[in-house]
Amino acid sequence: MINSTANKQVRRVTNLVKKAKARREEDLYVVEGVRMCRELKPEQVEILYVSESFLKESGEAQLKGFPWEMVADPVMKVMADTQTPQGILALVKQKHYTLEEILAQPGEAHLMVLETLQDPGNLGTILRAGEGAGITGVVMNQTTADLYNPKVIRSTMGSIYRVPFVYVDDLAAACAEMKKKGIRLFAAHLKGEQAYDREDFTGPCGFLIGNEAKGLTDETAALADTYVKIPMAGQVESLNAAVAASVLMFETARQRRISKEY
């Protein structure tokens, strides 16, 4: 059992929790909590850490097949990113997709294209809502927040395991590749003349979502085939990035669901 917070394994975990650079270099990320860890398969995991009290309450049965290590409760509190840790966390191997793999996903393309989103909660919510709406992938530029940030991981509620994603060096080139594949790109934009629900999203499509404070850059907005607007009541001028993305994703899901009924 690990009793000291000075243990090198503890230092390694806290480094992975706090630093994107460490996660990139080790090609690992940290997953916390019973629900998130329950979805993992042994081949995805380098090691599980469980607290002494967790092991007493839950036993070893659910750890079968996984390499694991027990740590003292105070040590788990140092390792975990949450205020009240559930007593289990895992070091998980990162997944890597290419743009080609994203564009080759089965079914009609339904993509989220993100430019410099910074809020981990927004990014995680887009993945979680996106899975619910049936998106086929997420494409991001390099200045978008780290998807393996613990706050993003928690916000996805497990969708990070199932939704394919890729960071690209050149977002314009990636969008050009999408267009070659017949994917129509939409941007929710103040210059949009038509309400989003008047457009046809039943064909292959992608949605450009910009930075929370500044929106899309002019260069990226210009990549869109069509600008759409989300009509607002009251004095609200715009929506949170994750909310706007969700509105567009679920409208696409609605249209496609209805089109299959006829």
Structural overview:
The chain has 262 residues and is an alpha/beta fold. It is 37% helix and 20% strand. It has eleven helices and eleven strands. It has a seven-stranded parallel sheet with strand order 7-6-5-10-8-11-9, sandwiched between helices. The protein has a four-stranded mixed sheet with strand order 1-4-2-3. Strand 5, helix 7 and strand 6 form a beta-alpha-beta unit. Helix 7 runs parallel beside helix 8 and helix 7 packs parallel to helix 11 (241-261). The protein is elongated, with a radius of gyration of 21 Å. The mean pLDDT is 96.
Number of strands: 11
Strand residue percentage: 15-25%
Derived structural class: alpha/beta
Indicate the mean pLDDT.
Answer: 96
Q: What is the string of helix and strand elements? A: HHEHEHEHEHEHEHEHEEEHEH
Oligomerization status of the protein chains: single chain
- Report Rg: 21 Å
Strands across the major sheet, in which order? 7-6-5-10-8-11-9
Which descriptors would you attach to this protein?
4-stranded mixed beta sheet; 11 helices; single chain; 7-stranded parallel beta sheet; alpha/beta; 262 residues
Which secondary structure elements does this structure contain, and how are they paired or packed?
Blueprint: H1 8-18, H2 20-26, E1 28-32, H3 34-38, E2 45-51, H4 52-58, E3 68-71, H5 73-79, E4 88-93, H6 99-103, E5 110-114, H7 120-133, E6 137-141, H8 150-156, E7 165-168, H9 171-180, E8 184-188, E9 194-195, E10 205-209, H10 218-221, E11 226-229, H11 241-261
Parallel strand pairs: 2-3, 5-6, 5-10, 6-7, 8-10, 8-11, 9-11
Antiparallel strand pairs: 1-4, 2-4
Helix pairs in contact: 1-2, 7-8, 7-11
